[in-house]
Write a structure and sequence with these properties.
Layout: H1 5-20, H2 28-45, H3 53-60
Helix pairs in contact: 1-2
Length: about 60
């Protein structure tokens, strides 16, 4: 499950941007971009859980 967190956070940030920028309220843009930035930071952090193919190939040898 942890290896899919990057994809999940990227999709969540896209959904936040899509719906957040459609609203025409005060501070919506700043909040939308702030939440998107936080989701992208978490997505970048979770890339360490993606398995590396090179390490698997080395362990087989």
């Amino acid at each position: 499950m942890k290896r899919y967190l990057t994809l999940i956070f990227l999709l969540v940030s896209a959904v936040i941007l899509f719906f957040g920028l459609r609203l025409d309220l005060q501070w919506t843009g700043a909040v939308t971009w702030g939440l998107t930035f936080i989701c992208l930071v978490f997505a970048a952090y979770c890339t360490k859980f993606i398995p590396d193919r090179k390490e698997k190939e080395k362990s087989r040898d």
